[in-house]
Specification:
Number of strands: 0
Strand content: under 5%
Structural class: mainly alpha
Radius of gyration: 19 Å
Order of helices and strands: HHHHHH
Number of domains: 2
Distance between the termini: 45 Å
Number of helices: 6
Helix content: 40-55%
Shape: globular
Length: about 180
């Protein structure tokens, strides 16, 4: 089972997620997570700085996880590879340390709680924003795209939509977003 096999159906691709024997993509993901965690342990309070992961993680890689997708030179990554931590949280920890990551997690948890509290209002735009945010929150455990314009725009727009829902000051006032 290989997640990149074009002939694989949905079930086979789903099963390939746990394949650490022959799926280089999964093994490389473990390599990136391990490197990010080691970087965090080295600089837990400040991290290595925003945007530095792809240039800093190479010496933190685990040799046992290295494969044909492993980056040895950040200026010349192998085809089908790149310099990402494959997790928003791990990227935050390695680049910005625990304080920034804690703020990010707090903000996200706040949006989840607000969304849960407002579900009974049947505000369709709010529910769409909340579900869109939840979808990305699941996805961000395995990839990171907040450095991509389109994904960042959607993520922060969903969050802003949820925040706007709390600014109904009077009970009879119409929701800002409907």
């Amino acid at each position: 089972l290989d997640s990149r096999d074009p002939s694989a159906n949905f079930i086979e691709r789903t099963k390939s997620v746990r394949n650490l024997e022959t799926d280089a993509s999964n093994v490389e993901r473990l390599n990136r997570w391990t490197a990010a965690w080691k970087m965090f342990l080295e600089k837990p309070h400040t991290g290595f700085g925003p945007g530095t992961y792809q240039y800093t993680y190479i010496p933190f890689q685990e040799q046992k996880f290295e494969n044909h997708l492993t980056v040895k030179n950040p200026d010349n990554p192998p085809p089908g590879s790149g310099g990402s931590a494959h997790s928003e949280i791990m990227l935050q920890l390695s680049e910005n340390g625990w304080p920034s990551t804690a703020l990010f997690v707090f903000l996200v948890l706040r949006w989840i709680i607000i969304g849960l509290q407002k579900l009974q209002t049947k505000n369709h735009v709010l529910i769409a924003c909340w579900l869109g945010l939840l979808t990305y929150l699941f996805h961000m455990q395995f990839n990171n795209f907040l450095n991509t314009d389109a994904f960042a725009f959607l993520f922060w727009t969903f969050g802003a939509g949820i925040d706007l829902s709390i600014y109904q000051t009077r009970k009879n006032e119409q929701p800002i977003l409907q």
